[in-house]
Amino acid sequence: MKNNASLKGLLIAVLVFMIAFGIYFFLLAKKNYYLVDNPTPNTYYYKINNGSEGIISAGQYVKVDLNKGKNSIKVFDQNKKLLYDSAFQVNKIRGLLNIAHQDYYINRQYYGYNLKKDSLLLALDKTVIDGKKYFGGPKHFNKLYTDDFYYNVDEDYDKLIKNIDKVESRSKIFRKQDYLNYYKEFYTF
Questions:
Q1: Coil, strand or helix: which one is 46?
Q2: Does the pLDDT value for residue 94 go beyond 80?
Q3: Do 56 and 31 touch, CB atoms closer than 8 A?
Q4: Which of 120, 147, 163, 183 could form a disulfide with 95 if both were Cys (CB 3.0 to 4.6 A apart)?
Q5: Strand partners for 174
């Protein structure tokens, strides 16, 4: 076979493409998963879709497998006494199971050039938490399941999102105390 420059160029281009694709999927792509979260000092046992029993200790979160569509969960206290048996609907590729029915807040972080963060937050709704007003309109959540966010409790906001020519936002779910700490650290009016 002759030394064909076109064939060599094609093979090099395909190899570079596969390496770039591999780097993206193994290092850069955002992973999608579901969490069971327990911000309380209690220990809980649970069974999802009548599967094997899981345990979650105080302050932990555990990745679980859920099916799109209808799912069920049984939650037990530390003495393995049934607390409740419930069903929930999974629609998206990431979500949070709040088995202790604690308070969470879903907050929007805004990105973009020439973004006037303080005036934007002041224009949004205010939420009262423990008698104090918080700007930015965080959504209160304390039900069993939600998938209405982009970043889960174990993820941080991106520090910078590139190639944005307009104002965009990403939502993150916080445990109540984590949200209060985040708000105090990042926002001063």
A1: strand
A2: yes
A3: no
A4: 147
A5: 105
